[in-house]
Amino acid sequence: MRLDKFVSNMGFGSRKEVKGLLKKGAIAVNGKPVKDSSFHVDEKNDEVTLFGEKIVYREFIYLMMHKPQGVISATEDNRDRTVIDLLEDEYRHFEPFPVGRLDKDTEGLLLITNDGKLTHELLSPKKEVPKMYFAHIEGVVTEDDSKRFAQGVTLDDGYFTKPGQLRILKSDEISEIELTITEGKFHQVKRMFEAVGKKVIYLKRMSMGPLKLDESLQLGEYRELTEEEIAML
């Protein structure tokens, strides 16, 4: 990789700014100052330093966010704040994107990465990656609803869903449930409950595949995945 691209990709300025640093002799490769921006480095084996500090090469980033309400799951939007707007510059320069979508009014686990291959694996319908949600439901949720969800329900557009596992935590005028599904159709959880005559009034995603929401993260906060979590994915 070109040296100026390497340093810029790791967040140390634009290509133009990096060329200025090179001219000053601030960047060294394996202990030797390099001023040629077109100099090529082996990003995994060469040691590149800026003012004596080693630059650690990273190709991918993996972030777990506790998405708040009012923020949309997109990379950019003309009207609303996006989940990418919540990130520090040190992560934004990697050009990450959310893995799948959570509705604007839905909270919970959102994975943000720039790893396209992993994203495809997690979102592919063939993989049937389970996603578990916690919800408050307006209306008394019954075992009959659980049985219907276990068989699949017909949505308002005629689509017949794959089976969902509905666990009733509290059955009352405002019920509390956990629902695990392996699809990600538009507004799917809300539409599944509409199919049985009930309304979702609060929705939070708790897990996606083996990844569980870190409850120590406050709404809007995020952290890098651990090596163990990345390995599980």
Short description:
By secondary structure, the chain is α+β, with helices and mostly antiparallel strands. It has helices spanning 3-9, 15-23, 89-92, 116-123, 143-151, 188-194, 227-232, and strands spanning 27-29, 32-33, 48-50, 53-54, 62-67, 97-98, 107-113, 131-138, 165-170, 174-181, 199-208, 211-212, 222-224.
Give the topology, please:
Blueprint lengths: L2 H7 L5 H9 L3 E3 L2 E2 L14 E3 L2 E2 L7 E6 L21 H4 L4 E2 L8 E7 L2 H8 L7 E8 L4 H9 L13 E6 L3 E8 L6 H7 L4 E10 L2 E2 L9 E3 L2 H6 L1
Distance between the termini: 28 Å
- Specify the overall morphology: elongated
Q: Total number of helical segments?
A: 7
The level-1 CATH class of the largest domain: Alpha Beta
Number of strands: 13
In CATH terms, the superfamily of the largest domain is: Pseudouridine synthase I, catalytic domain, N-terminal subdomain
Calculate the mean pLDDT score and round it.
Answer: 95
Any idea of the CATH topology of the largest domain? Alpha-Beta Plaits
The percentage of residues in β strands lies in 25-35%
Give me the oligomer status.
single chain
Largest β-sheet summary: 9 strands, mixed
Weakly predicted, low-confidence segments:
none
SS-based structural class?
Answer: alpha+beta
Enzyme class: isomerase
Organism: Sporosarcina oncorhynchi
GO molecular function: isomerase activity
Keywords: Isomerase, RNA-binding
